[in-house]
Design a protein that fits this description.
The protein has 6 helices and 12 strands. By secondary structure, the chain is α/β, with parallel strands linked by helices.
Length: 240
């Protein structure tokens, strides 16, 4: 099947478009961040797809809010037996209550949480968030050092934060790159993809054809890595 692709930004929402030998246009909203993907017939162009997405924005926003609500409702209780992902690998958490410094420690297929007795659930979540951030802090400098000479750019500043709808972002004016703390749950190659993606924005601001060509030049497998970040659809709609 002949395919072509594009990346459009529509009313502040990034939309991946794939043109295929199909009859109808499909719009999908995907977890975990509500990414929007469109499969469109070859007979449509970017502007026609843009108009179609604009017409469906209320539905898209509704699906994205449902996804975020589901995430809020599935908040971890931070108790023994829960599953937590670290660099794409599932670990069973074991809580060990004992005096001393609270901290996480990987142990084979387990993730040990050492905390003083009576530590609140909120505090345990804070400890996990901090631990995930530390994992990213240990890895990102090496990735940036690897890609700076390849891309011929210099990263002036980078930080980690929790983002609802993006895996990363880049401020072209300040050179500041942000990485989503949730990347610590994904395979390491996914973090490297986001590092390269945001660094390429130093070369091209928009998600346009030049940007796509740069990604294909420097990281030919970037599309498959993006697929790992955006799994099955939260919802999908077909219309003519």
């Amino acid at each position: 099947m002949n395919t072509a692709s594009a990346y459009l930004t529509i009313r502040g929402i990034g939309v991946d478009v794939t043109y295929k030998n199909i009859k109808n246009l499909h719009i999908g909203v995907y977890p975990p961040l509500g990414n929007v993907r469109v499969a469109a017939p070859h007979r449509l162009n970017d502007e026609q797809v843009r108009l179609a997405v604009v017409q469906r924005l209320p539905w898209i926003k509704e699906q994205r809010e449902q996804l975020r609500s589901a995430v809020r409702q599935s908040t971890r209780e931070m108790v023994t037996g829960e599953s937590h992902y670290v660099w794409g690998v599932r670990h069973r958490m074991k809580v060990v209550e004992r005096p001393g410094r609270a901290h996480f420690e990987p142990d084979g297929e387990r993730l040990l949480l050492y905390v003083p007795a009576g530590t609140s659930t909120t505090r345990r979540r804070e400890l996990l968030d901090h631990w995930y951030r530390e994992q990213i802090r240990h890895v990102v400098p090496g990735l940036i050092s690897k890609w700076e000479p390849i891309l011929e750019v210099s990263v002036s500043r980078w930080s980690i934060k929790r983002m609802k709808t993006k895996w990363g972002s880049c401020n072209r004016e300040t050179g500041h790159i942000w990485f989503n703390v949730e990347l610590a749950k994904k395979p390491p190659a996914c973090l490297e993809y986001i590092v390269v993606h945001e660094m390429v924005h130093y070369l091209e601001r928009h998600h346009n054809d030049p940007f796509t060509k740069l990604m294909e030049q420097f990281m030919p497998n970037w599309r498959s890595l993006r697929e790992q970040l955006n799994n099955a659809p939260l919802a999908e709609e077909q219309w003519t």
